[in-house]
Amino acid sequence: MQLHNCPISNLIRVELYNFLFMKAYVYVALKKTVLDPQGKTIYGALSKMGYKSVQDVRQGKYFEIVLNGSDKAAAKAEVERIAREVLTNPVIEEFSYELEE
Q1: Which of 2, 49, 57, 95 could form a disulfide linkage to 43, CB 3.0–4.6 angstroms apart?
Q2: Pairing state of beta strands 21-30 and 60-68?
Q3: pLDDT tens digit string along 3-57?
Q4: Interacting residues of 71 by C-beta distance below 8 A, sequence separation 6+
Q5: What are the residues whose beta carbons fall under 8 Å from the beta carbon of 50, sequence distance 6 or more?
Q6: Residue 63: exposure state from Cβ atoms within 10 A (0-12, 13-18, ≥19)
Q7: Which of 92, 42, 98, 95 is nearest to 72 (CA)?
């Protein structure tokens, strides 16, 4: 009898995955005080296409990071460190993130 193909086995695998891992969604963007030429270009294109309700566009980067473990405090600390040290240039960029357990 093989359990790896049955629906119950898949449910157990999903529950086990959710217990052992967390996912972080990290958003990086230029600081408001830094000019955003790409955002301005996108804004101009949207205006020319008739999107009159758009007032401003700021572009950025998006990352999904899967972390081992279920300790939320440790995950927050790790994500913040990764974002500060690797994903952003702290002189011109800022970040925000969400954690999914």
Answers
A1: 57
A2: antiparallel
A3: 455 555 555 555 555 568 899 999 999 999 999 999 999 999 999 999 999 999 9
A4: none
A5: none
A6: middle
A7: 98
Nearest one of 58, 44, 56 to 93, comparing CA atoms:
58
Instruction: Give the position of tokens 């093989």.
Output: 2
Characterise 85 by phi-psi region: left (phi > 0), alpha (psi -120 to 50), beta (else). alpha
Which architecture, in CATH terms, is 20-100? Answer: 2-Layer Sandwich (3.30)
Q: What does the buried/exposed string (b/e) look like for 5-42 if buried means 16 or more CB atoms within 10 Å of the residue's CB?
A: eeeeeeeeeeeeeeeeebebebebbbeeeeebeebeeb
